[in-house]
Amino acid sequence: MxxxxxxxxxxxxxxxxxxRPPRMAVAAAGEAAAIIAAANAMKxxxxxxxxxxEGKRIRALAEEHAVDLHxxxxxxxxxxxxxxxxxxxxxxxxxxxxxxxxxVTTKEFVRAILNHEIGxxxxxxxxxxxxxxxxxxxxxxxxxxxxxxIRPRFNRKVAIVRNAIEVxxxxxxxxxxxxxxxxxxxxxxxxxxxxxDAELLRRMGEAGHFGRCIVDGPLSMDNALDRHTAExxxxxxxxxxxxxxxxxxxxxxxxxxxxTVRYLARRELASxxxxxxxxxxxxxxxxxxxxxxxxxxxxxxxxxxxxxxPRETDGHSS
Amino acid sequence: MAVKxxxxxxxxxxxxxxxxxxxxxxxxxxxxESLAVAETENPDVSRATIVVSGDDTTxxxxxxxxxxxxxxxxxxxxxxxxYHARELMLVKLRVTPGAIPSIMQAAELFQARVIGMSxxxxxxxxxxxxxxxDGFLKMVRPWGIVSxxxxxxxxxxxxxxxxxxxxxGENTA
Lengths: 318, 173
Fold this sequence. Notes:
The complex is a heterodimer.
Chain A: H1 9-16, E1 23-27, H2 32-43, E2 48-53, H3 55-64, E3 73-76, H4 80-92, E4 98-101, H5 106-113, E5 127-133, E6 140-144, H6 154-170, E7 177-181, H7 193-206, E8 214-219, H8 221-225, H9 227-232, E9 245-247, H10 251-264, E10 270-274, E11 280-281, H11 289-306
Parallel strand pairs in A: 1-2, 1-4, 2-3, 4-11, 6-9, 7-8, 7-9
Antiparallel strand pairs in A: 5-6, 5-10
Helix pairs in contact in A: 1-11, 2-11, 4-5
Chain B: E1 3-12, H1 17-26, E2 32-39, E3 45-54, H2 56-67, E4 72-77, E5 83-94, H3 100-110, E6 113-117, E7 121-128, H4 130-140, E8 145-150, E9 154-157
Antiparallel strand pairs in B: 1-3, 1-4, 2-3, 5-7, 5-8, 5-9, 6-7
Helix pairs in contact in B: 1-2, 3-4
């Protein structure tokens, strides 16, 4: 039976907490923020961190910030490339359930994930999936892609939608309502290519190509978020006002939404990179401690939901 | 042996010119495979890009015949030099949800642009070299071509051209 949807970040943490937490390989862990985030997540029962990098520096930073590393594995790696490769290898070999980026560029980290030999490549591209709270804070919503795909073409958007649906399913949203965002609600040819993609994605969704979900687009943000607006504008849609997933047309749009949520609305977020053989947590150094914790929780929940190995939960459900 | 020739022809922009040029090739039994004509930067002069197939001797005779026409300002057979050639194609395809990713993949690969959509069809615009357009058609044909329009090849020489008095509209042939 599908669990009930996760409705808040607190619930996300509770739901991700389990008796046998997955191991989280932190690549290039010689950074205080990463060490603190990993230790906090372990304290919450979300993950068992494996810190990969220069052990001496990791221990010194932990001591400096009064972080208890008891029970944390530390694995030596001479540089960031080796640390990334090792983290990815651990997950590739089933020794870790998720990976996290430390003091290394996202580009280098992602390159290791996409390595043909020991990487975590699947049959689809990677994409960034963020989780935000709904306007009335009654549930969680997903936003994609604010971090990986710059100007995705149509088939890349197909993969982005699939990745987001997988994450939504892990959050207990059994039939996600997916809004393909554009500036307007009608197809504008040829001026607005995003509306064409949205219409085609809608048709694919309608034909069942994304599995159990409802895809609609093009939808402007107000229609996706506010049912009344959609009614006033005459945009009848099963997704309007209750979208679970917002698929932005490009990285600029998604990134602006992400940062507006964070810095204008002052809300917390969580995010992972999906599409690989397991989730990757790519937290920014500027992310708050809560955002980092929620991101790890999201990654842990996603890892355990998609990992066939049985897990014991704390029994909580909403 | 039949060889493809791409002929760039500057002609006076007046009625009946096209018929005269076509007749020069028809008289030698040469079929025009594509013909694209439009005004140049000089409104009194048009450029016709003609693609024909034929043996070199017959085509050369037709070209000489064409060159001798009062309305023809200049004629170049581009086969003997480098040139830039493009063609525009509009193709309307039958579309089903299952075919969308493949059609869009082909469109992305060939940099075709969606310019129209209905419940049952999708119309794509593609500009490129003749062979690229053929390649695209080969890819999308399985989904069903509802209608197709090609502009015919347009071409200019790849070399810098000296400004010639002849391009002012005076025939120096």
